[in-house]
Amino acid sequence: MTFCFTGIRSFPKLWKSNPYLGLGPAHSSVCLFLKDCYGIRNQQKWFSLKTASPQNTKAVNLLIAKAQYPRKGDKGNKKQVSSDSPHLFAAGAAKKRSQMNPQSKDHVLSPVRDTIQLPTKPLNSEEWDKLKEDFKGKANFENWISSQMAHCRSSVDVAKSLLAWVAAKNNGIIGYDLLVKYLYLCVFHKQTSEVIDVYEIMKTRYKSLESGGNSLLIRGLIHSDRWREALLLLEDIKKVMIPSKKNYHDCIQGALLHQDVKTAWDLYQELLGHDVVPMLETLKAFFDFGKDIKDDQYSNKLLDILLYLRNNQLYPGESFAHSIKTWFESVPGEQWKGQFTTIQKSGQCLGCGKTIESIRLSPEEYEFLKGKILRDVIDGGDQYKKTTPQELKRFQNFVKHCPPFDIVIDGLNVAKMFPKARESQVLLDVVSQLAKQNLRLLVLGRKHMLRQGSRWRRDEMEMVQKQASCFFADNISEDDPFLLYATLHSGNHCKFITKDLMRDHKACLPDAKTQRLFFKWQQGHQLAIINRLPGSKITFQFRYLYLQGCLSSEIKGRNSKAYSQP
């Protein structure tokens, strides 16, 4: 999907603040490209758990009482808690969104391990005793059943009856793990009052919480009038680690829900100050809040977000794109409207008539980038942690005495792309196919690849060496500096093959301009292997198909949305 905004003359900041936006006062359009990407956030637990005082008996009794007498308003309340949405665009990164889908009211769970079936309604003490007797597993029954209930998003009433049963058997004591799993269900179903009850228990009983517990409490409290206590929990996390982007998202969302715009922007700036890439849902929340607001300062901050998206190659998903569209159309005093358009293969937008920025670097840009990478990544980077100056010098001399290459191959990386196949065979297949096209090839590898073994056959490696120039570094050496050096040294025509994203090397570059040029160069020069079947042709494609301001032929004719101002 593509958004093409015309009439940007009303927002001169978009071109004045960034010389690499590719626009000037003579232009009146900007294109924003959107791509769905998926991310996994791994959150480590760093908090210690310490008992500060006895169990909050009053709170536990209240919990038990509510388990026996559920509130009328709780019935059927199964709204979904906001989950991580597609956010960071980085081609090839592991992208998978975790979606939390509420269970339907009549959902019947299938038996687990052919032993017991999860209850679909609250049980009394005798019924829980019977269920435990029927359990044949080796694990602790209470922990196992609570984990299954959390996994299957059981109703809060069922989980509450479990806690009441456990508390009755243990003199009112409920273990931390059970509380956290119950808290998860309360947050998932947006049972705010239950979240507050658990919060009071935990606050009384535990001196500090691990990050998972704090994160759940933050997410649950933001919907209540006690949302500012979520900010205190965020401060607790900061004492041990940098809070996650999800923690910041929840607090920002809470601030916006309660009309505290200053706190929301302060948290956003704090997030960026930690060099943490915000969730796209966080940015979307600012656009949603800004609808119909006549505030130049707020509008300028939203335009800064658009620049941030561009400069960091972040691509909004469809929902976020609609929020951007809605905000533009709601700006008081402006007259924006949306229409469908098609981007031609030439890169021309049929909505505004403008030609989109080319992915190709100019000769001046290429020389600038080449100098920066050789100086800041190759010569000034941290490559000597995994190689030696002598070996790097040996490689530079090797490249110097070779003609320019057409394709540089990260041999070990390519060989391991298909784990079920023999590594030397995969590498040979790739090299043989490219060599048939009369391309001059360089294969970078490690010395262990030349030793005979089950994964590396000597005869296949000899065939590789007959069809390509090869350089085998020490086994402890890092391949990436060699790959970048050889590709850049060979000229702007040279491509490279690896599934490595080069993020560390991009981070070594000193400024946003150089990083953006590196990303554009990477898009136009990195190849990926997308298909390899025995006896069939290997399929290659450019690693990155999308660039803000650039359209790949892979999306020719794909419908997109354009927004124009009459």
Automatic annotation (TrEMBL):
Residues 343-542 form the PRORP domain. One of its GO terms (cellular component) is mitochondrial matrix. Its main location: mitochondrion. It is found in: Mitochondrion. Transmembrane segments: none annotated. GO terms for biological process: tRNA processing. It is an enzyme of class 3 (hydrolase). The keyword Chloroplast does not apply. It holds the Pfam family PRORP. Its cofactor is Mn(2+); Mg(2+). InterPro entries: MRPP3_PIN_dom, PRORP_C, TPR-like_helical_dom_sf. It catalyses: Endonucleolytic cleavage of RNA, removing 5'-extranucleotides from tRNA precursor. Its EC number is 3.1.26.5. The keyword Nucleotide-binding does not apply. Gene3D superfamilies: 3.40.50.11980, Tetratricopeptide repeat domain. GO terms for molecular function: metal ion binding; ribonuclease P activity. Catalytic component of mitochondrial ribonuclease P, a complex composed of TRMT10C/MRPP1, HSD17B10/MRPP2 and PRORP/MRPP3. Belongs to the PPR family. P subfamily. This is Mitochondrial ribonuclease P catalytic subunit. The lineage of its organism: Eukaryota, Metazoa, Chordata, Craniata, Vertebrata.
